[in-house]
Queue: 4 jobs
Job 1
Amino acid sequence: MLREFFRLAGQNVLHRKLRSILAVLGVLIGIMAVVILISFGLSLKGLMTGEVAKVFGVDTFMVMDQDVMSGKHSGGMKEFGLNLETLKGVDGVKTVAAVRQRTAFVEGGTNGEGNVQQGFMPVMGLSPELLTDFAAFTGDLVFEEGGRQITGTDVDAAVLRRELADRLGAKLGDTILIAGEKSNEITATVIGILAASDEKQAEQGFASSMSSSSSDTIYVPYATMDLLWPEGNDFLVTVVRILPGYDVDDVADRAEVALKAEGSRVSAITSSDITSVIDQMMSYINIFLAGLAGISLLVGGVGVMNTMFTSVLERTKDIGVMKAVGAKNRHVLAIFLIESGLIGFLGGLIGTALGLGITAAACWGINTFAGLPAGASFPFVASPTLILATLFGAFALGAVSGLWPARRGARMPVVDALRYE
Amino acid sequence: MPLLDLKGIVKDYELGKTVVHAVRGLDLNIDRGEIVAIMGPSGSGKSTLMHLLGALDTPSAGTASLEGHNLHELSENELVTLRGKKVGFVFQTFNLIQSLTAQKNVELPMIFQGVRKSARAERARALLEKVGLGERMKHRPNELSGGERQRVAIARALANDPEILLADEPTGNLDSETGATILELLKKLSIDEGKTMILITHDPDAAAIAHRIVRLRDGRVVQEVRNA
């Protein structure tokens, strides 16, 4: 009997095409908004987790100041102390690379008027392992012609950004003076200048983006930091690669315990930690988006309700006839509920298809034209859960919106309904 | 036992703030196989009586029983089931569902009784052939003439093989020639199929096919005549 009710309801939808189309349109727009917003959120999450996975992989974790991840420290990165040897000694650790950062007095060349260009700048020391084993952290840096990246054997060398090189009046091959603690100072040769023409690529490097004023940062070999500031336990970040066969979360936990036992205030962060932070962040974004989408769904639902009230009123006589020939109240209720559910489902079907199509096109557009960092992609995610949930939800939306009108139709006394003109 | 037995029926209903006494103490028996015409001027209670005879409504007072079932004692759903099985309606304005084909309109009463699809379709086709619409089964009501629509309605009334055919002014919206053929059809079917038929009508030609004519005035039976 249910199948027959579906057929009857379907016939009613088709019989009043224009009105059905308008009601479907209302639902469609709402569902489309939901699908676009959620799919876009999923794509955004895909982009972020993709980038995290690229940097971390399954065999890498970071050690940072414990306040950075807990959110107590709001100013970006923060220096912390730890014993690198302890970290290297943790079971399962293969390679440890560290980044140190300090502020130094820096003196460059002279400008056109003969004034020496100087100032306090952040100086970042990148350990050789970072450059060899963790290329993803520095990214594919693009150097101006003749420039090169720091290697493990460099000592008195520095890499600058184009803006900073201009400000210091330094050209490739020039020397700059970097003064550290006490009277420690070195004269470093500028071996590479990061091209300013491709800002985005230069920004991609993880190490470069760590500093709050990254365009000011002077990069020097790790060993050079030891010459300037001998203490050597003020890290911005350390990156750890584990040996094959170990679980990254286990090793990270052991490292954190070992370091904390020595009094270091650090946290070991794995990709799953970052992913869970991203998930949490995305869940807030999704709640906000769901609220927006909910409003459009509500409007669609009211549209369906309006259509169904008109439909019930218009078919009052049909209701009377159906009841006269043996339809019970629940039969009439079911027919009208299915009808409004079908309107919702139809809106859901088209809305989901359009929403996915628009999201796919937008993802393609972003990937093609937005100039994402090399290798990064804004993935199109067609979540089966989302599709099923929206289709079912759209049917339910229609049915719920039709409930009130349908009940009114179903409860109409047969004699009154038959008399209705 | 009469098929329909009405004793001391009173039916009042409220129309705005006034109470209308549509039927005021009416007794009527109808036997199986009878063709009864109920006549009377407007406001005599014909329509109200039809609603009561067709188990569409229950009386305010008195007892109405159909095949021994006292309508008063039935729940709304039982009333619907009884009506669906025992009564077939033919209306003045045909009252077909516009969005459905002739065949589907005929199938409608069987759908609500849960008749299987194939059996339903077969019976609908047979009934439409019987009323002379074998070629027009897939047409919708707006593609049919008035006489054809009433034939569809008659086929629908017979769908669940009811005891009673209840026709309310079946020729009221038809020209006299078409009306005459519809009356012929109704008479033939009720005799062939052994149905009890109740005709509510103004039309003396319609009343002429009846075994008995019951005249109403002011909610009471004022005359009963047996046709020869």
Job 2
Amino acid sequence: MNLTLRVWRQAGPDAPGRFETYRATDVSPDSSFLEMLDAVNEELIGDNEEPIEFMHDCREGICGTCGMMINGQAHGPRAETATCQLHMRSFSDGDEIVLEPWRAAGFPIVKDLVVDRAAFDRIIEAGGYITVDTGSAPDANLIPIEKDAADLAMDAAACIGCGACVAACPNGAAQLFTSAKMQQLNLLPQGQPERYQRAESMVEVMEEHFGSCTNMGECEAACPKGISIDFIAMMNKDYRKAKFKNRRTA
Amino acid sequence: MATSTSQPASTKRTPFLVELYRSALGKKYVMAITGIVGLGYVFAHMVGNLKLYQSPEDFNRYAEFLRELLYPIAPQSAVLNILRLVLILALVGHVVAAYQLTIMNRRARPESYRGKRDYVVADFAARTMRWTGVIVLLFLVYHLADLTWGWANPAAAGATPYEKVIASFSVPAVAAFYLVANLALGVHLYHGFWSLFQSMGWTNRRFNAWRRSLAIAFTVVVVGGNLSFPIAVQVGLIS
């Protein structure tokens, strides 16, 4: 299949960007989206042009590194699919495909389709952890956990931190990421000691970088792991409770 | 070895409501709670106005009754004015929080996508909340001028509430404006009623599926009732 790509090219964080048009020829429908971009880059390099910079790492949908807006949708047209797991059979011969980086104040563009997602690390630093005794490993299954809670926490823990939720959100909000990273701990016994401190800190750091939620649900639809916006409601509740408890002293 | 932790100089915190409001999540709570006040109001308002279909006397008596709520325990109009104050505060809170959140969201996405966005689930209602809200707000000003203060009302001075309603809705342009504004209200309620459960943190997987149906039912009842009044006057069902 032959495709026309309109790709956002931007030399650096402060450089002006623009769309450039490229042709992808003889693309196998079985190749992945990133393999298609690799082939386009090979040609660009052969022509002594700058290859298109894009984010990628594991290419098996678990690391959360890849991601771009493909035809106005985060990670492209397939539900619950990261860009690396998207295959060219999702497109038709002759299609024009528009590629843009995630756009959000919290995700400044580094180059072309690459953005800096360090703001997510700031949110994790604020409370996306638990405190445990180090030393010898504890016995397995020492702490009984209700099955439903474990399952729900596991659903939240599926978050790979790719940033599609922020990219898809019309408000550039990071509610889905933050709530998933918070609730994977708050739903479990191990997360209880820091539960409310975590809720306050993570939300407040999130709000320094990102927008606010208007409950449109675009994040849930864009999430390659299908994480539910129910976690956002749980986060709202924990945050309210944390404020009522009014325990933080500094 | 003994260790000591340094104590913070002051452990006094700002009142929790102030602190809550400082956050965007807190402002969303304000949006939701003031929204619930508004939902209660539009429902009661619609039910009260159904008395248009009973008789002019019933409608006018209802209007009078609102001034005599809890009278003589409370002075004449006292309860009505307290309710008005609650509604004004809720409206101001709703609008101010919406404004502040909008500013925040604009800042969070300073550069919009250059290509066309392809929304998957964000519906028309969710994406137009700001605009339907503004339409309802403008309508509200006219509505008060028309039927509460009366200076925009075509009826002669000293007209009864019923006569004022009929006089107003008999003008096709006014009736059309009421229809448009109520459709905007409907779109606003459709998303707002559903949205408030999320903002309030009310999630329960057994009931979550009902939230949308509930929002639709509420919207249909309230907006259906409201739309029927100007239509009924225009087609001559009530006069």
Job 3
Amino acid sequence: MAKIKGAVTVNKERCKGCNLCVVACPTDTLSLQPLEVNDRGYHFAYMSNPDACIGCCSCALVCPDACIEVYRVKLD
Amino acid sequence: MELQDIIRPENKVYAAPELLDQVHMHYCPGCSHGVIHKLVAEVIAELGITERAVGVSPVGCAVFAYNYIDCDWIEAAHGRAPAVATAASRLWPENVVFTYQGDGDMSAIGTAETIHAANRGENIVMIFVNNAIYGMTGGQMAPTTLLGQKTATSPYGRRVDLNGYPLEITNLLKELDGTCYVTRQSVHTPANVRKTKAALKKAFQNAMEKKGTSVVEVVSTCNSGWKMSPEKANEWMAQHMFEKYPLGDLKLS
């Protein structure tokens, strides 16, 4: 069976740290930065567990600020 | 496989819609408006009506929608978006006109315009964002506020004897002969976001085919007004709002 591997990029200046992508992620890939903040003072989202990402787009769909881009590859 | 091998343009499966301007949105973190803006921008681009789409923005939190979605917009006086949309769609019949209104604009000050535009069967799409509170002015009670819900002007909860019952304006619009498609959706989970996008697409197609008025209500959260975190607001909405405002198609024709 082909394995799917995904990755996301977060536009960290646009992110407002609402945490909705972290809740929507089925594989616990995303977290909010615990210490770092962006220019507006928000704890932005990042891939804390990149190996788990399956590129399902759940995070990007629920993101209110459209700051997530999703990439996906099929491994044979 | 390393991350930089995955993050390549040919592997991209989801990106922000091109019609959504890359400016900072003024909405609070976790606001449902952002998701709905994104869906509207995606649907307009996918239907190829970028040059023909005319939005009418309301007064309320979504007043700056014209800064975020890159199509033509008209800013209407408070509650008068359906009246302005009527003019725009009658004078330029080739255009696809939609209104984007909150519950204060559509079901409080603009009730008359909403009902009459739908009753005349104007070829417009009405997008109704129902978050059961007046978000922009600081969380006061709206006509759609649930019984018992605490707001700035109902600090002990909404009471029937004092404030009356919540207004389900979408159910009223369903009864009118002018509407061709009335639906109620939400955007709190990925599956619901996909359903809402399909509903918006159908509504815009109805407007393109001149079938009559389409109403898409999106039951939304106002986490600032409700005094909750975004994820708690989504949970609260699923627990309480859907009881009064059940999701699904109310009218299909």
Job 4
Amino acid sequence: MISEQDLIVQLKSERTKEQAFKELLSQYKERLYWHIRKIVISHDDADDVLQNTFIKVYKNIHNFKGESQLFSWMYRIATNESITFLNRKAKFLKASSEEIQQQAINNLKADVYFEGDEIQLKLQKAIALLPQKQQLIFNMKYFDDITYREMADILETSEGALKASYHIAVKKIEKYLSSN
Amino acid sequence: MKDNKLHLNKSAGHQVPEGYFDKVEDAIWDQANLSSKITTPGFEVPSNYFESFDAKILRKVQTQEFANPKITPFWTRQTTFYAAGIAATIILLLGLFLNSKDSLDFNDLETVSIESYLSEEEFTDQDLAALTTEDYLLFDGFNETNIPDATIENYLIEHSSLDDLEYISEP
């Protein structure tokens, strides 16, 4: 597998950009898809956001200064695109982004691309009740096992604050699952 | 006091925040409970979604590239400033050259300047005589002028004396 540094150099060269972009897609598309999917919930929405994310990466790779890892930079774009997508959808439907998320969770039972059991559905409901940042932190740590250091880079928050937020989120979710 | 809230491990000197062990126990317990129940979120993707994604996104970025080809603008802010500077300089220089007169004619002289020149300079009779060579000062011109006798008579009565008449009477 090509190193991140080489991949960045190739992505910035017009001659090798396309080939390097194919490599980037193969390395990161699934990880970014699952990250986006957990935020926007439905597959169709996740597909839209994933496409927008990669188009943005392709167009803005020359602006990437290498101050963070390529992976962190792409995760940050994917996170911002997902949140922007939810806000835009909420504005269009004249609702809050929380209401949109609740609506997406309520639709999960009928979603053909949700194979979760009752407890997984409850977990999604519990996550949707958390503040947006806690949702992100919980999903990234619990399901994606992203380190606090990487998460601090992606979300531009201190590691200490992330740890505290994660433990609070786990506690709230466990409490919700126990009482429901 | 901050120090009083910390548990002191006397053997190594390391300290932990107050209540840390209770909190960490809760955190581990919550995490363990949760992960024993759920390990995946339960989402699925359509079959072959990831396999077909690459071709779809590559098609899209290529279409966008052709739709919006990279254009290097000729009139960048910097070139505009340079061009404006050069144009202003040319206009200024042309203005200076076109408005300046290489030669002066007699009409450009002020009457006062002529008077002061004439009063300060000395002229000989020859200098003045040279002026009479001009065509319009030839004596022939006087012959063409008809002055009625009555006008001459009146002029002589008003402006002449007996002394003047002596000169006139001489042949």
